[in-house]
Amino acid sequence: MCTWSSPFLGQLTRTDSPIFLTLDEASWVAALLNMGRFIGAISGALCVHYWGSKNAIVCTLLPMICSWILLFLANSPMMLYVARFSGGLGLGMTFSCFPLYLGEIALPQIRGAMVTIAFCGSPFGYVLVSLVGYYMSMKMSSLVFLVLCLINIGMFMGLPNSPHHLMKIGKLEAARKSIHWYRSGIGVDEEFEAVQKFVTSSAVTSLHDQLNEFKNPPIRRALFIIIMLFTFTQICGLNSLMFYMEMVFRRAKSDLIDPSLAVILINASGLLTAILSVKMMDKCGRKVLLMISGTGISISMIALGTHFILMDLGFDPSKFQWLPVASAFLFMITFVFGLMPTPSAVLSELFPANIKCIAACIASFTGALFAFASTKTWQPTIDALGEAYVFYIQAALTSLMVPFVWYFMPETKGKTLQQIQDDLMT
């Protein structure tokens, strides 16, 4: 859903496109996905609160199905707008509930790896969208993704709810069975008591009480960390490359490889990195991965900006046409290595059960806000400052993540959710 615009905006902005888009219209097609995330963030949190994280994930697929149907039927820019907004609604809901679901079903020792494995779906989706966009029309690709959404609904409908949700609504025997299903091979009674203690210790009776929880200094600290991590995720240059990667290569006059093929290869590198980094989350810890990721992303943005500076100075772009491609490769590898999966893993760990929904909503809303701002302002900012300074600004902002993580973020690897809460209280 996120990278759909990279292959197809390049096609839709050509004069021979059946639905021709101006650059301003193209920026709205890209940005409306993130505008839909605003509402999705709140909707997803409500779904988790009332129906549990597993059922909420099923709900996220419904607006995505509507989006693919509309993209298949689209014959005007307005239909593209509505389709992308609907897709953003589902995406925002996903960010509100998916991390919570993973945090509730995974053992502490493999929770980070579980999140990383799950987020391998993102680079896999990037590759799939790039391949489909390269070989298929917009209508045919919409049918492919529609079928995949329907398959996902069928898969999740067959899964049990998380033990935390079942415990919360008083279905103790169902919670015990859920623990046995998700965590086969461990002591069910011991895990049952741990989940019960965690849910009971964080139980409150009303939304007002839940909001009052955020007055506690440890919770405020956790919220500040999550807001900053989700902000860094969106201001690092992600939207510039994911939404406009093919257009960036064309502007950079990089003929080393066909821009569409370059996008496929770069996204494939992200998938390989995600697979290789599965064990790194729980081996190295969250902080190390984030600092490595922030450093690599900053270097990649500086290199990309330097390419455009050299072009502005009159240098022959054919002499360094490898630079934008190499920069994009470095960005994708380092982003997927740390900044893509880690904020969601930390989100699932830092908050008590009773306020996780609200925290996830705030995190998703924050991500949507900065994603929309960075996507919609990308073209006007380039028109005003030029490509080089846009990438330099993104590099400078991302570099701030390294000292932030070092000084403010606690390490959570290998700890139970209760242990993390105890650490925040001290």
* Rg (C-alpha, Å): 22 Å
Q: Number of helix segments?
A: 23
How many structural domains does the protein architecture include?
A: 1
CATH class: Mainly Alpha
- CATH level-3 fold name: Growth Hormone, Chain: A
Give a description of the structure.
This protein is an all-alpha fold. The protein has 23 helices and no strands. The two termini are 41 Å apart. The model has no long low-confidence stretch (mean pLDDT 83).
Annotate the secondary structure layout.
Blueprint: H1 5-12, H2 23-51, H3 53-73, H4 77-105, H5 111-119, H6 121-135, H7 138-157, H8 163-168, H9 172-182, H10 188-201, H11 207-212, H12 217-235, H13 238-251, H14 259-276, H15 280-284, H16 286-312, H17 322-339, H18 342-350, H19 356-376, H20 378-385, H21 387-399, H22 401-408, H23 417-425
Helix pairs in contact: 1-13, 2-3, 2-4, 2-19, 3-4, 3-7, 4-18, 4-19, 6-14, 9-10, 12-18, 12-19, 13-14, 13-17, 14-17, 16-17, 16-21, 16-22, 20-21
What structural keywords apply?
transmembrane helix, Major facilitator superfamily (MFS) profile domain-containing protein, cell membrane, 426 residues, mainly alpha, 79% helix, Growth Hormone, Chain: A, globular
Short précis:
The chain has 23 helices and no strands. With 426 residues, the chain is mostly helical. It has a single domain, classed as Growth Hormone, Chain: A, CATH 1.20.1250.
